[in-house]
């Protein structure tokens, strides 16, 4: 009778950048700088909206929630990545890995729902301006945001539990710099078919569906804007939507490239790096450069700081 010995896995190795030792210093500097800019940029958006009454409208309320999500989203992966680059310690505990996997997807799916709410807000503002303030009151906005957070954390729960319950007894190397559903399911000794199906179903429901809704809403917005007679009116309408449209496009395009394109290339790691840090870093600049109200509030903040410094 043949004895089969199984090794119990109690930690994983994040080896996504294992073959880039020569570039660790450069990668560390880029990641750290991007992370710092992401934190300060998104914090600045939050401070601006909270400070200036002109920005106390639903669109900017959603923007601050999105900025909070971006800070949290980046903070899930990059402290560990920075630690890997400094200490060359690729280990992460099973609990730490599963927690990172779940929270990363929960925050990402919350962002999907929030981007949909932001598109809905722009749709109501342009297509139904007379009833906009009545519909999008403070209570309704708070309820919508709360539901997006709740849904975002509920949807990946089942795939996460199914992935956690798989048996891990063999290889423990994850060819990424963060823990994710697919790499963990591929490492399982038990059959991951059910968890694979659950992950795919949840992705279609919570990621693809919001994307389709955003596209439909913007088609309706564009149709309405094109019917506006005055050029200033068209310009103002497009300017209020452009920043959100760019952010949503950047979020979905990078996400689709990272998760749908064929694996196996070293470029995948850098695309994932762009998706988790560079995109959150760019969003504050997009909102500042493309949005007149935010730009004016930022100028007022700079002038206020200059006055305080001069004294």
UniProtKB/TrEMBL annotation:
InterPro entries: GPCR_Rhodpsn, GPCR_Rhodpsn_7TM, Olfact_rcpt, Olfactory_GPCR1
Pfam family membership, one: 7tm_4
Chief place where the protein resides: membrane
CDD domains linked to this entry: 7tmA_OR
Record bears the keyword Disulfide bond: yes
UniProt entry keywords in alphabetical sequence: Cell membrane, Disulfide bond, G-protein coupled receptor, Glycoprotein, Membrane, Olfaction, Receptor, Sensory transduction, Transducer, Transmembrane, Transmembrane helix
GO molecular function: G protein-coupled receptor activity; olfactory receptor activity
Membrane topology of the entry: Multi-pass membrane protein
One Gene Ontology term, aspect cellular component: plasma membrane
Residues that span the membrane, as ranges: 23-48, 60-82, 140-166, 202-226, 238-260, 272-289
Compartment annotation: Cell membrane
G-protein coupled receptors family 1 profile domain location: 41-287
Family: Belongs to the G-protein coupled receptor 1 family.
Record protein name field: Olfactory receptor
């Amino acid at each position: 009778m043949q004895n089969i010995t199984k090794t119990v896995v109690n930690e994983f190795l994040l080896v996504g950048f294992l073959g880039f030792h020569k570039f660790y210093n450069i990668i560390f500097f880029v990641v750290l700088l991007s992370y710092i800019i992401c934190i300060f940029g998104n914090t600045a958006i939050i401070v601006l909206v909270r400070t200036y009454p002109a920005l106390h409208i639903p669109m900017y309320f959603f923007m601050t929630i999105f900025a909070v999500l971006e800070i949290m989203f980046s903070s899930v992966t990059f402290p560990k990545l920075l630690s890997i680059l400094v200490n060359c310690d690729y280990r992460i505990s099973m609990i730490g890995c599963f927690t990172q996997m779940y929270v990363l997807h929960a925050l990402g799916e919350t962002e999907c729902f929030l981007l949909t709410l932001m598109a809905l807000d722009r749709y109501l503002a342009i297509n139904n301006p007379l009833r906009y303030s009545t519909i999008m009151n403070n209570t309704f906005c708070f309820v919508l945001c709360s539901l997006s957070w709740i849904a975002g954390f509920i949807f990946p729960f089942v795939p996460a539990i199914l992935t956690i319950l798989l048996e891990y007894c063999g290889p423990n190397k994850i060819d990424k710099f963060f823990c994710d559903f697919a790499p963990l399911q591929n490492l399982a000794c038990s059959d991951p078919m059910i968890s694979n199906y659950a992950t795919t179903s949840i992705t279609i429901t919570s990621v693809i569906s919001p994307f389709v809704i955003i596209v439909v809403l913007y088609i309706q917005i564009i149709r309405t804007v094109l019917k506006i007679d005055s050029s200033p009116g068209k310009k103002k309408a497009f300017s209020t939507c452009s920043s959100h449209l760019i952010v949503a496009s950047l979020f979905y395009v990078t996400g689709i490239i990272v998760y749908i394109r064929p694996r196996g290339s070293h470029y995948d790691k850098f695309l994932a790096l762009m998706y988790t840090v560079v995109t959150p870093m760019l969003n504050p600049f997009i909102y500042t450069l493309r949005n007149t109200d935010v730009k004016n509030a930022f100028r007022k903040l700079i002038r206020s700081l200059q006055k305080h410094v001069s004294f």
